[in-house]
Amino acid sequence: MNCAGEQKNDFQISGDRVGKLTKQSLARDIDLIFEKDSVVQDTVKLNFGSGASKIKIYERGGQLLLTLTPNRDSIATIQNIQINDSRFVTEKGISKESTFKEIKDKYPIKKIITSLNNVVVLLKDSDLYFTIDKKELPESLRYNANSKIEEVQIPDKAKVKYMMIGWD
Fold first, then answer.
1. Which pLDDT score is estimated for 1?
2. pLDDT for res 8
3. Under 8 Å CB-to-CB from 40, ≥6 apart: which residues?
4. Do β-strands 89-90 and 12-14 pair in parallel, antiparallel, or remain unpaired?
5. Using an 8 Å Cβ cutoff, are 162 and 96 in contact?
6. What is the C-alpha to C-alpha distance for residues 31 and 56, in angstroms, rounded to an integer?
C-alpha cells in the first residue's frame, strides 16, 4: 500500500466524498470508517425537536478533523460536514484556509445568503459551501442583516470562517 497516496486521499474532497467518508456512509459505521482516529459523539442531546447530535472526528494526537451531523432517517447517513482541518482540499485546491478570491476563481457562485453575523456562499453544482464572517466585509455592510450582499462586495482577501458540505 502506498502510504503517501493513502494519506492524500484521506484529505481529498471530491464529488460525493470527503476523505474516507462518502455520501452513502452510514452514521452507525463512523467508528469503523475512522478506526485510526478518535470519534466523539455528543453525550447531551437537547430536546428541542432537533435530535441531531454532532459527531467529532479527531486525529490521533488531538487535531479536530471533521464535525459531522447525521440526518434523522431510520438508517442515518451524514447530512452536514464541517471541515475543521486545512489539510482537507478539493480537487481544485480549495481548503478552509482559502480566500474568497481563490474560491470564486475556481468555482461558479450560485447564491450568497446574508445572516446576522455571516454570509454563506453557495456554489453551483456542488454540495460545498462557505461561511464568511461579516467582520471580513467593509464596515458599511456588517451591521444590516437584511441587506443583500453581492459577490462583488465581498473582498478578495476575505477569509473563510467555515467550510461545509451539505448532503441531502
1. 39
2. 63
3. 55, 56, 57, 58
4. parallel
5. yes
6. 11
Q: How far is CA 141 from CA 15, 33, 119, in A?
A: 33, 43, 11
Confidence of residue 110 (pLDDT cuts 50, 70, 90): very high
- Angle, alpha carbons 42-87-123 (nearest 5°): 85
Q: Is 85 helix (H, G, I), strand (E, B) or coil?
A: coil
- The whole-number average pLDDT for the span 111-126 is 94
Task: Report which residue type is found at 149.
Answer: I
Average pLDDT over residues 24-29: 93
Reduce the secondary structure of 34-49 to three states and give it as a string: CCCCEEEECCCCCCCC
Q: What is the mean pLDDT of residues 69-96?
A: 94
Q: Where are the beta strands (DSSP E) in 15-138?
A: 17-18, 21-22, 38-41, 55-58, 64-70, 78-83, 89-90, 109-114, 118-123, 128-133
* Polymer length in residues for the chain: 168
Provide mean pLDDT across the span 152-168. Answer: 95
